[in-house]
Amino acid sequence: MRKALRRIYQLNQYIRAKEVRVVDEEGKQLGVMPISEALKLAQEEGVDLVEVAPKITPPVAKLIDFAKFKYQERRKHQLAKKKGSKGQDLKEIRFTPFIAENDFQIRLKRARAFLEEGNRVNLVVKFVGRQITRKEFGVGLIKRACQSLEDLATMDREPSLKGKLLITTLSPAKKRS
Fold first, then answer.
1. Is 161 buried (19+), middle (13-18) or exposed (0-12) by CB count in 10 A?
2. How many domains does the chain have?
3. pTM value?
4. Is the residue at 4 inside a domain?
5. Is residue 80 exposed (0-12), middle (13-18) or buried (19+ Cβ within 10 Å)?
6. Is the Cβ–Cβ distance between 58 and 21 less than 8 Å?
7. What confidence tens digit (pLDDT) does each residue in 118-148 have?
8. Which long-range contacts (CB under 8 A, 24 or more apart) does 103-106 make?
9. For the segment 1-47, what is each residue's pLDDT rounded down to a tens digit?
10. Whole domain around residue 155: which residue ranges?
C-alpha cells in the first residue's frame, strides 16, 4: 500500500487569516486585501480562493478553480519527479581481474552507453577465491577502464575494496559547449 504525501489547502471561508495577498490564475498580484474582499472577488469571478502559501505574512491566496489548481499541482509534481529521476540511475558493470580483452571491450561499450544516457556507472571488480591476493590486477583494470572512458566520465571516488569487491563510481562529464 502506497501512501501519497498530500498537502491540505485551505479554501474560501476556511482561510483563517484576516488579510491575504491575492494572486490571479496567471500569477499576477492583485495586492493585499482583507479576506472578506478577497472572497467577494472570488465569488464575482466564479472561482475559489485557495491559500497556497500559509506560512508567510500575509498568506498568499490564489483565485483559481480548485479542481484546476489540484490538476496543475499534480502535473507539476509528476514533471519534477520525472525530471529528478533522469540521470540519477546508478548502473553497475562487473569485471573479474583476469577478464579477456574482448569481454573487457564489450563491458566498456555498455558503460559508455550508460554514460551517454546520463546515468552514473559503478565499475566493480569481483575477486573470486585466491584472486584477492592479486589486488593490483583489479586496480589496474579499473584505471584502464577509467582512462578509456575519461572523455565521457569523471571518477567520483578512488577505487576502494569492500570485502571481495573493488568498486569505483563514474559520473557523466558535463557537456562542453
1. middle
2. 2
3. 0.51
4. no
5. exposed
6. yes
7. 889 999 999 998 888 888 999 999 999 999 9
8. 104/141, 104/144, 104/145
9. 445 556 788 888 888 889 999 998 888 999 999 999 999 999 999 99
10. 90-172
